[in-house]
Design a protein that fits this description.
The protein is of the alpha+beta class and 437 residues long. The protein has 10 helices and 13 strands. Helix 2 runs antiparallel to helix 3, helix 2 packs parallel to helix 5 and helix 3 packs antiparallel against helix 5.
Amino acid sequence: MLGYRLLPEEKIAALEKNEKLLRQQIKAAIRFINEVTEGNTNAQYEYDDENDELRKSLLKMQQSLNAYRAVELQNQWESVGLSKINDLLRIQYDSIQEFSVAVITELVRYLNANQAGLFVANEDEQGNVFLELTACYAYNRRKYLDKIIKPGQGLLGQVYLEKEYLYITDAPDKYVTITSGLGEATAKSLLIVPVKNNDIVSGVIEIASFNTFKPYEIDFVNKVGSSIAVVLASIKSATHTQKLLQAYKEQNENIRAQEEELRQNLEELQATQEKQREIEQELRKSKELIEQKLKEQDLQAEKMVEHMDKFRKVLIEVLNELPQKIFLKDSEGRFVLVNNAVAAAHHTTPSKLLGTSDFDHFPPEEAQSYRNAEIEIIKSGKKKIYEHEEKISGERKILRTMKMPFYIHHLDQMGLLGIQTDITELVELKNKINNPA
C-alpha cells in the first residue's frame, strides 16, 4: 500500500501562485501574438517581467517586424512616387517649361515640401553655359526675378559643377524664404540635386522645406533627377529636329515655288509662237542661270569641305587643350586618336603614339592586364568609371578614369574611348571639408 505525504500549506500556496503567474504570462503572450499577427506591430506586451525570457523573445520579434515594415513602407513609398513621376514623363510636352512645371509640382506635393525650382542648363550664342529657371513652385517672385545662374555661382552653381547632391539643414539666413498664411520664415532644410544621366548634368533641382529630408527621400529625388535628365535630352533633341524639319519644309516650299514659276514660264514660251526668238533667248538665259547656280553650288560644296576640314582641326586642337587624357583605341587595342595630354604622359608625340598599343609601352604582364580589362568593357557594352593613384613626374596623383565602348565609323568596328581626369585637388578639398582643422 502506497503512502502519501501532505505538502505544507505554504508550499501549496506558492505552487498555486506560480501556476497563476504562468497562466497570466501565457495569456499575455497569446494576446500579444494575436495582435501582431493581425497587423498591430506596435501592440503592448501587458505582462511586465524583466526576467521573462518569452517576453524578451516576443519583443525582439516585434522590433524586427517593425524594422522590416519600415523598410517595406519606404520601398512602397518610393515605388508609388516613381510611378507617378514616370506617368508624367510619358506625356508628350510641347515645351521644356510645360514639362518642368508638371514634374516639379508633383515632386513638391509628393515630398510634402514647401518650395522647389527646376533649373535647366542652356547655352547662349557664344556657347557659354547657364542655368535657367524653367519651373518653380510657391517661390517668392521678388527673390527670383533673376532666373539665370552661372555654373559655380552659389550653391546651385556648385552642385552643377560638382555633379553631386547637396543637403543642408542649416540653410544660409534668408537664402530661401517660405511664404505662408502665417507670414514669412526661413526654410529648415535645403536639398539641391543635379539632374544628370551618364554623368552629364542637364539641370539642377532645388527643394526647400520646413521639415528635414530622410535618406530614402533624398535617394528618391536623385532617381527622379536621372529620369528628368533623360526626358530633357529627348525634348531638346525633338526641338532641334523640329527646327531642322521646319527649315527643310521652308526650303522645299521655295523650291516648289521656283519650279511652279519655271513651269509657267515654259508654258508662256510655248504658247507664244511669234516670240520664238525671245523664247530661245530666254532658254539660253535660263541655261546660263542654271550653269551659274551649279557653279555656285560647286563652290559652296568646296567651301563646305574646307569648313569641315577646319572643324576637324579645331576639334583636335580643342582636345589637345583639355587637361584630361583622352584616347581612342581600335578593336585590337591600338591607339587611333590621342590628345597631347596622353602623348605627354608617354613622353612622345601624338603622331608617334598612333598605331601603338600598351604592349609597346608597358611590361607584358601589365599590358595584358590592361588589355583584358578593356576587352571586358567592350564585351559588356557598358562604361566603367574608377579612381586610382598614379605617379606623374614623381608626384602622387589621384585619377578618375572612364572607359566605354565606342563605335569607330570609318573603321566599322567597336573600339574603346578613354578619359582620365586629375581629381587630386577635388579629393583634397573634400578631405578638408570633411576633416576641418
